[in-house]
Amino acid sequence: MPLVLMARRPRSPHHYRFRDAWVLPAPPDAVYAVLEAVEGYPSWWPQVRRVHQADDVSGTVHIRSLLPYGLTLAARESRRDPRARVLEVVVHGDLEGWARWTVLPHGTAGSLARFEQDVDVRKPLMRRLALPGRPVFRANHAWMMRGGRRGLRALLEGRPRGGADGI
To answer: Where are the domains of the chain?
Structure first.
């Protein structure tokens, strides 16, 4: 019998999948509590410019990293599990998809905050520049995550975060 290989449907150039892991100097429950308090993100994550909570499970987030454009996302909680330390949202707007935090113990007193995101770009400019801009968009996301990691680490260590760019 011949071997039949099923071709995988090629991903759209507008699709992004991100994974990040932050080693943090605080117990998992403390990290989870900060990540759960979304309205506080702008105080420690420089690229999260504004958060407006509509209710207990939804709101709007405005972000801008290094590139001269911002993204506006409507986020709705799809999972909040303090026992497993998992937070997940579905997003709509300039990006469509989901994002998830999972906080795990790391070492004797620290944590590993794992971030996962699976989205399709809806912002017209980013869609037009999908192919030539992809490496730049990925670098922009990495810069944003770097700023978040540094800001959260500073908050957990009780020191002021770096400058406006998160360094």
So the answer is: 15-157
Which residue bears the tokens 């699709």? Answer: 15
Category of 71 on φ-ψ map: left (φ > 0), alpha (ψ -120 to 50) or beta: beta
Using one digit for the tens of pLDDT, what is the confidence trace for 65-114?
Answer: 999 999 999 999 999 999 999 999 999 999 999 999 999 999 999 999 99
**pTM value > 0.90:** no
- Measure the CA–CA gap between 137 and 143, rounded to whole angstroms: 10
3-state secondary structure of 121: strand
Residue among 148, 132, 146, 121 at smallest CA distance from 48 = 148
What is the token pair recorded at 49? 């410019």
In CATH, the architecture of 15-157 is 2-Layer Sandwich (3.30)
Distance CA 41, CA 153 (A): 13
Ordered alpha helix ranges (H), 9-158: 28-36, 41-44, 124-128, 130-157
